[in-house]
Amino acid sequence: MNLRTLRTFVEVVRQGGFSQAAEVVSLTQSTVSKAVKTLEDELGTPLLNRMGHKSELTAAGAIVYRRALVLLAERSDLIAEINDLRGLKGGILRIGLPPVGSGALFAAMFAEYRARYPDIEIELIEYGAKKLLECLESGELDVAALLKQKPYNEAFDYQDVRIEPLVVVMPEHHPLSTRKSVDFADLADSPFILFEAGFALNAVIQAACDKKGVTPKVTARSGQIDFIVDLVSAGLGVAFLPRMLAQKHLHDGIRLVALDEADTDWHIALAWRKNAHLSPAAGAWLEVARGR
To answer: Which of 57, 65, 74, 105 is 20 to 30 Å from 37 by CA-CA measure?
Structure first.
């Protein structure tokens, strides 16, 4: 058993199939299949149930996946500590950002970081919350920006970046568009336009609706804020955005109304593994973020 094989297996699980994983690890599909088969033969048990183009973990596969994440994280820490010992002047910052709001929050930080540390290489990836968490756990990322929600994941340390209230983006002719604030009970009969599945903001909205006993009527989903706002303007429904992002997309045809609901703030924080080695490059990034 080697770490490269374990990394390949982890990506098959993450990507949901062999062909998708092959693209991520830059191998052929047949090589990926052989790597997983070799691992299964070595352990003497199937790790995946293969169903067409998709695969699901067996009970043994779930154990191997969980342990593989730990081993890959240890390998990452080992390499980082050795590099620090060698006194690398540059280094690499491996950072993950969510699809929503990253430009508004972090573009200026990246410019300042680059100006201060021009020799540090930046490896930036953009994923949804679930995959960012997995990449943090496996040590593939030094730090990631996450929507901070209770109960907080105790495996990570956090540094707050921004807290913004959510606002309701409404068509200008919506019967509630002149209100100063609304809650989910007020919006029970309005179609919702939400982000695509996997966006952490959806969970915040759903949890608040559950508390009010409201079942959202979802009429559309998108991963693009511009398109969501255009759908609202066209009268398809109402949407929910952090105030600072909604104000950037405000135009004729829509209105912004405050959302009067507890525990719905857009709380973005930088997260890193607790008690793990934090590279100097990552520490410098946290320092820049603290000063903003």
So the answer is: 74
